[in-house]
Amino acid sequence: MKAKNLKLLLTAGIGSVHIDLHAAASAGLTVAEVTGSNVVSVAEDELMRILILMRNFVPGYNQVINGEWNIAGISYRAHDLQGKTIGTMGGGRIGKLLLQRLKPFECNLLYHDRLQMEQAVEKEIGAKYFENLKEMLPKCDVIVINTPLTEKTRGMFNKEKKGVLIVNNARATIMERQAVVEATENGHIGVYSGDVWDPQPAAKDHSWRYMPNHAMTPHISGTTMDAQVRYAAGTKDMLERYFKGEDFPAQNYIVKNGEIAPQYL
Ligand SMILES: NC(=O)C1=CN([C@@H]2O[C@H](COP(=O)(O)OP(=O)(O)OC[C@H]3O[C@@H](n4cnc5c(N)ncnc54)[C@H](O)[C@@H]3O)[C@@H](O)[C@H]2O)C=CC1
């Protein structure tokens, strides 16, 4: 390690996979993030993407830009959200909030996670738990990815319904890059809307820029002005606590005393 005096690594936001957490743990470093800081921002963004994909919005917008007018060319792939089945892989902070935000749309809500929510919360949201991801995937019209990238979540997909809409604001390598390109080309994925890329920033010739049926963005879902205020304040708070010798809020620790937080294992 080159930085011999390094003690602390802070992520101003959520998602610390840019850090080698195992190396940090064995070097005795502390890694922390501003847990919760952009949960609302990402969940709202996912809701927006679900609606945009379901209504075939982007091709409609492109018609206007290109001077075209072809209603039938849009509507044959536009559907109501009501009655559709939406599944989130990951029912943590973002996944749970997304399900709560989706409830008034009268969809069938499913989720897969390592951990089942408390029964009262699950009942209030009206979401059905699947311990086995492979059982949930074929049921979904829309799949949203809300787990961190770990060795277990990398490349987890292959059982989706034909024409499925996929929203991935979590991490790009949870999907296999070439498989996404091929599936958008052959229609197995109806539309893929991702906010995250591998690597970032994405090169000009990255294949996901040019595949058909996508609605990609450059990692913006968690970076609203409101989120920036929250994660700047959270980072400042942790720095102040660090220099006073105080602990951080417990949920912010990703690596502490050689241990990696369970959600990253
Ligand atoms: N695009 C963006 O700007 C942002 C993206 N994110 C991404 O979203 C992810 C989720 O964020 P939060 O909901 O706040 O995290 P969280 O820690 O509250 O929830 C993650 C959930 O994933 C589950 N999980 C972990 N590994 C799993 C596995 N192998 N199988 C099934 N479930 C598993 C955990 O049990 C937990 O419930 C982050 O790790 C990050 O990658 C987060 C914030 C901003």
From TrEMBL:
InterPro entries in the record: D-isomer_2_OHA_DH_cat_dom, D-isomer_DH_CS, D-isomer_DH_CS1, D-isomer_DH_NAD-bd, NAD(P)-bd_dom_sf
Top-level taxonomic group: Eukaryota
Cellular component annotations (GO), alphabetically ordered: chloroplast; mitochondrion
A single GO molecular function term of this UniProt record: NAD binding
GO biological process, one term: monocarboxylic acid metabolic process
Residue ranges constituting the D-isomer specific 2-hydroxyacid dehydrogenase NAD-binding domain according to the UniProt record: 48-221
Annotated D-isomer specific 2-hydroxyacid dehydrogenase catalytic domain residues: 2-247
Catalytic activity: formate + NAD(+) = CO2 + NADH
Sorted UniProt keywords: NAD, Oxidoreductase
Family: Belongs to the D-isomer specific 2-hydroxyacid dehydrogenase family.
PANTHER family membership: FORMATE DEHYDROGENASE 1
Record protein name field: D-isomer specific 2-hydroxyacid dehydrogenase NAD-binding domain-containing protein
Provenance organism: Arabis alpina
Lineage: Eukaryota, Viridiplantae, Streptophyta, Embryophyta, Tracheophyta
